[in-house]
Structure formats: structure tokens, C-alpha cells
Amino acid sequence: MIVTNDVRMTILRQLMMGSRKKEWKNTAEDTMKTIKVKGMSCSHCVMTVSKALQAVDGVDRVHVSLETGEATFAETTPVDMAVIAEKIRKAGYDVV
Ligand SMILES: [Cu+2]
Fold it and tell me: Is 2-95 a CATH 1.10.3860.10 domain?
């Protein structure tokens, strides 16, 4: 029983370490961008802006903060910031 648990723990640990390493690698490769969004007042606004950003090609891992009014995302392929601003404006918000 004790041996089995030990083996299981080792495998689990290796799996966890493996996935974490992969995550770091992706983050290091992609460019992180932060933009300031004006006009958000509630969680619904945050969702709308998040969806607008996620719909843009090359945008990944979107995080929008109502507190700071900032939207952060990973740029997996070069993204035109004018396209981003246009999408957000069409959603009803402004990019500062
Ligand atoms: Cu709102």
C-alpha cells in the first residue's frame, strides 16, 4: 500500500511539473499586451470586452480588470492594435 502511494505521488508530481513547465514556455514566447479600456462599469462590461478581444485572431488568454480598467492578453501572432480598438469601440467601449 505504502509503495503504491509513493509511486502514484511521484507520477502525479511529474505530471504537475510537466504541465507547469509548458505553461511557462508559452507565456515566455507570446508577447503580453495591456490596453486601457474606458467605460466599463460592471461584470457584464468586463464580459463584453473580453469576448470582443477573444474574437480577434492572434489574441489569447484575455484578462479584463474592472478595478484597473485594463485588458491584458497574449499576442500569439502579431495583432493590429487598430483592429483591437475598433472591436472594443464596436462593443460600446473606448480604448484610451
Ligand atoms: Cu456593465
Answer: no
